[in-house]
């Protein structure tokens, strides 16, 4: 995401400022027209409230259907109150965008960590081949390869531990971000059961983000 066109910025900035000023004037004109329109003042609050009620009902009904498909032990841990709170928080579409962003970061992170692990494995294989090309004595080579296997096994365990710790930290970052965003059910925790429940809630949110709400139906 490097920005390399700094010389074009002054003229671009002037264009943006001019467009912003025009948009601001148009917005002010629209606001003044709306403010002086009695019908708009009378109808907009009612329509907005009705829209939100319909959307809340839609979200809650979809969550209840998803909840019903979970294993019974998780159905018992996810209460109706939690589903209702989650539906209410999702009236703000920003939550969908936050979750999508977090999932994209997670996928990129997982891909990177897989590449790190593959590089370690490739380095181990390369080291064995180098020894094979140097040592002519079969018995000596067998002894060296046995030592390499012990070394590589230890190294891989250490690598896997680092990768797991890195993923654990990413989970905590996700939990903290969603908690700060006010999404019910999310808080920093190491408890496997609670993390599994949060994974189900994340899945609910992602599935809801792909559904189209039609208020007139």
Description:
- By secondary structure, the chain is mostly helical.
- It has 7 helices and no strands.
- The two termini are 42 Å apart.
Estimated helix fraction: over 70%
Specify the structural class: mainly alpha
According to DSSP, the number of beta strands is 0
Q: Name the beta content range.
A: under 5%
Work out the helix count. 7
Uncertain parts: 1-46
Spatial extent as radius of gyration: 28 Å
Average predicted local confidence, pLDDT:
83
Shape: elongated
Largest sheet, strands/sense/barrel: none
Distance between the termini: 42 Å
Order of helices and strands: HHHHHHH
Concise account of the structure shown:
This protein is mostly helical.
Q: What structural keywords apply?
A:
elongated, Gonadal protein gdl, 7 helices, 217 residues, Gonadal, mainly alpha, 0% strand, single chain, 81% helix
Question: Strands, helices and their partners?
Answer:
Blueprint: H1 9-35, H2 38-68, H3 72-77, H4 80-89, H5 94-134, H6 138-180, H7 192-209
Helix pairs in contact: 2-4, 5-6
